[in-house]
Amino acid sequence: MAFAERHLLGLEGMGAEAITSILDSAASFKEISDRDIKKVPALRGKTVINLFYENSTRTRTSFEIAAKRLSADTVNISESSSSASKGETLVDTARNLEAMRPDAIVLRHSMSGAAHLLARHVSCPIINAGDGCHEHPSQALLDLLTIRERRGAIAGLTVAIVGDLLHSRVGRSNLHGLRALGATVRVVGPPTLVPREFAALGAEVHTRLVDGVRDADVVMMLRVQRERMGANFFPSLDEYSHYYCLTEEVVRLAKPQVIILHPGPMNRGLEISSAVADGPYSVIMNQVTNGVAVRMALLYLLIARSKAEDAAELEAATDAPVVRGRSGGRA
Amino acid sequence: MTRLRIANGTVVDPMARTATRLDVLVEDGRIAAVEPGDQIAAEAETYDARGCLVVPGLVDMHVHLREPGYEYKETIATGAAAAVAGGVTSVACMANTNPVNDSSAVTRFILERAAEARSARVYPIGAVSVGLAGTQLAEFGEMRRAGIVAVSDDGVPIMDAGLMRRALEYAKLFDLLVIAHEEDACLRCDGVMNEGLTSVRLGLRGSPAAAEELMVARDIALVELTGGRLHVAHVSTARSVAMIREARGRGLGVSAEATPHHLFLTEEAVAEYDGNAKMAPPLRTRADVEALRAGLADGTIEAIATDHAPHHPDEKDCEFDQAANGIVGLETALGLGLRLVAEGVVDLPALVARMTVGPARLLGIPAGTLAVGAAADVTVIDPERRWKIAARSFRSKSRNTPFDGWDLQGKAVATFVGGALVYEDRTTAPPLRVAS
Amino acid sequence: MTANGTRLVMDAQAIQRALVRIAHEIVERGRGTADFALVGIRSRGVYIAQRLRRLLADIEGGEPVPFGVVDITLYRDDLDRRMQNPVVQGTSIDFDVDGRRILLVDDVLFTGRTIRAAMDAIIDFGRPQAIQLAVLVDRGHRELPIRADYVGKNIPTSRQEEVAVRLAEADGVDEVLVEAP
């Protein structure tokens, strides 16, 4: 069944058909960014609020551009400037925003489950742009689109996800998405950062980088956060890098047509060497391009769907056809 | 002399393990007789308990009444009202108030408030360490004179083994039970739910079962060293139960309680990041629930205690990481306990024991019995009554429960404290009282 | 007329003749096909445009005219129509629109809203010299001031009737049906 949810909170539980329908839509949105006039009127007059409790220039910009290319109006609310610093709760912020009737809210938050909480309190569609360590579905979708573009069907590919899986929302979303589409997923990292439970989620767990990368079709590097060092997940950045940095030497163990992904921002020299990041196998820039297309598709699909649902509900409740300002389409 | 006859009910004696059609005669607030109805001649106001069970007033040895300091969540008055609405006539309240109950002054304050409420009996539990800081012993003797019945730093674990050792030794002087909240703070780290597959899936930091087991093992060794009496609060893991069972088998003074939520729910309840599934210790796995049930049945776990933890909605309906720990339980414990009977986990006399004489004996309080001469704390239960848990109707100030909407069978319909009817369920038939 | 009120208004042969005639009209009025480009509106307009393209090539010889596809889903003016799962198949115009004589092609002309949306899409790509419209069927009931330059067949219908165009490329058969409500 094609994607049919009111919100996009995560890829867990989403079937292959739903994911594929989003990827197909995204592929057809790509072309708009190559035009001279990079705009279509599809979401004209709609309001999209980017509610970002965590700093993120790239994801927020990507969503903003996506919304604007669909002719929507965007509003950016970031933690430092919002009332949160005055002690307003997420629930109160949600209610305030709801009263302004947005057509969609894109939420990034530092705590897992924040998008679920927001979805309980507002009626417009929510897109989870990253909640704590839980999920970052639009990132995974753009990763899937990038892989599909470069390597064809995802089913049967071997994908290695390397790094701090324990704290990675990108890692989790990708794991769910790749498994749904039939890929073999290996998670690679030190035992402190890659718990055994990932095996129950469908991944092969590896602690040695060379084992994880050998004959892989795709290698996805995750960002290492320096704060983890303080909490004793690994003793030093040097040590981490020695064992888990993706260098040219390691890449040679993968399949010849391997592609390298990274959600950014990269710690050059820590989890990925500059040579690899800028090398011929890297598709990191394609990821960014695809990010806008995927987010355009998501905004469009979710808002179109919610309007249709609302109209149908209203019709059912009032038992009368919704009088639309403009009458029916195809003609 | 005021007389009350509770007539036509089935009196369940948890000690003798019998259930017999008997009347209970109360004179001036004390049990005067428990006999077949025709054997009691005295004229008395009668409460008709036909079709109902008559048990000693329930005892909940682990509640948080929040007063002093957090009255917006609950007060002693509202907590006591919630208790009797759940058939509970005696509660033991924990010391993590503000100020902490580490002195006779706070103990006396609590007792005063409880007396004003004229409802359930309230037995304060004093802190083990001053301010719950875990460094210096509080004045057990002074607090005992003021009226505490046990000591506990519940809310926080006693990380310093040396302090726990001294506490176990010193408490012997005053015959005080030391109740321990077992959760190694370093292992727990900032975990917000059980560590396992679910926490990894949901991207939430987990607290492993080992965090509890480590402390249980440590404190059992300290009981062996000191000869003191340890009570493990809200036990939650299978291995903890096994260790406690083994220690008791060796004759050590170790006891345990379990909460209704740990006897029913698993970590799966967190699935939608529902703040009402957040508590400490966290909900664990199915295997742990089964082990707790087995422990309850074989008596390793002597008491059901709710860890009644009222919180304001803003503290629960928020980001899971930020949500406060705990749920209310006074008004739902009996109903859930009866479901354990219906599911065959324990029989009725055993359930009643875990909720009356079990906790009463551990605390050394005169409750949990219908012996002649005892205070007439009696609970009348309608075992057939079907009802749906409705948090918005709770007597407690707070509504934080994951059991809202559950359909249960069996409910307290009348609660007597010292012979006075302090709670009556009037939601269905008119009062069963028949004028004498 | 079939039992449930469906009538066949064009069979395969009628369709073919209409398209051949339109192709000749295009060449005649346009005095050749210089600067022309065909743009089919998804989805059946695309097949008709492809057929016209072959016919024009047969008539005029030389290279077939440039060909593009427009998906008007993103240009609709009615987002709340019951399109719970809108399928966006993409627009593809890889020739320069500036200065071109664009011939839009669709299967049925009805209220005119689809054509308006298609024109918006084309104009986003550049500034054509002119836009003309060729349709297989004109069923009337315009809601906007839009008219077709080339029409296969005028079919008067009532608003409630449905006009179904079936084409071999998609449906295995060539026919135009009018279905009673």
Question: Topology, please?
Answer:
The complex is a heterotrimer of chains A (331), B (436) and C (181).
Chain A (H helix, E strand, L loop, with lengths): L15 H15 L16 E6 L4 H13 L3 E6 L11 H9 L5 E6 L4 H8 L4 E6 L5 H15 L6 E5 L6 H12 L3 E5 L8 H4 L2 E4 L2 H5 L4 E4 L5 H4 L6 H8 L3 H4 L7 E3 L12 H4 L6 H35 L13
Parallel strand pairs in A: 1-2, 1-3, 3-4, 5-6, 5-8, 6-7, 8-9
Helix pairs in contact in A: 1-5, 1-13, 2-13, 3-4, 5-6, 5-13
Chain B lengths: L2 E11 L4 E10 L2 E6 L9 E4 L4 E4 L1 E6 L12 H10 L2 E6 L10 H14 L3 E4 L15 H7 L3 E3 L8 H13 L3 E4 L4 H4 L4 E2 L2 H6 L3 E2 L1 H18 L3 E3 L5 H12 L4 E5 L1 H5 L21 H12 L5 E2 L28 H10 L5 H8 L1 H7 L14 E11 L18 E11 L2 E5 L12
Parallel strand pairs in B: 1-4, 1-5, 6-7, 7-8, 9-10, 10-13, 11-12, 13-14, 14-15
Antiparallel strand pairs in B: 1-2, 2-3, 5-16, 16-17, 17-18
Chain C lengths: L5 E5 L1 H19 L5 E6 L2 H17 L6 E4 L30 E9 L3 H13 L4 E9 L11 E5 L7 E5 L1 H4 L3 E5 L2
Parallel strand pairs in C: 2-3, 2-4, 4-5, 5-6
Antiparallel strand pairs in C: 1-8, 7-8
Helix pairs in contact in C: 1-2
What does this structure look like?
The complex is a heterotrimer of chains A (331), B (436) and C (181). With 331 residues, chain A is an alpha/beta fold. Chain A has two domains: 16-136 and 288-318, Aspartate/ornithine carbamoyltransferase (Rossmann fold, 3-Layer(aba) Sandwich); 138-286, Aspartate/ornithine carbamoyltransferase (Rossmann fold, 3-Layer(aba) Sandwich). In chain A, 41% of the residues lie in helices and 14% in strands. Chain A has 13 helices and nine strands. In chain A, α1 (16-30) crosses α13, α2 (57-69) crosses α13 and α5 packs across α13. The longest helix of chain A is centred in the last third of the chain and has 35 residues, at 284-318. Chain B is of the alpha/beta class and 436 residues long. Chain B folds into two domains: 3-54 and 374-424, Roll (Urease, subunit C, domain 1); 57-363, Metal-dependent hydrolases (TIM Barrel, Alpha-Beta Barrel), CATH 3.20.20. Chain B is built from 13 helices and 18 strands. Chain B has helices at 76-85, 104-117, 140-146, 161-173, 185-188, 197-202, 209-226, 238-249, 260-264, 286-297, 333-342, 348-355, 357-363; strands at 3-13, 18-27, 30-35, 45-48, 53-56, 58-63, 88-93, 121-124, 150-152, 177-180, 193-194, 206-207, 230-232, 254-258, 303-304, 378-388, 407-417, 420-424. In chain B, α1 (76-85) crosses α2 (104-117), α4 (161-173) packs across α7 (209-226) and α8 (238-249) runs parallel beside α10 (286-297). Chain B is globular and about 65 Å long. By secondary structure, chain C is an alpha/beta fold. In chain C, α3 links the parallel β4 and β5 (130-138). The model of chain C has no long low-confidence stretch (mean pLDDT 90). The chains are: A alpha/beta (331), B alpha/beta (436), C alpha/beta (181).
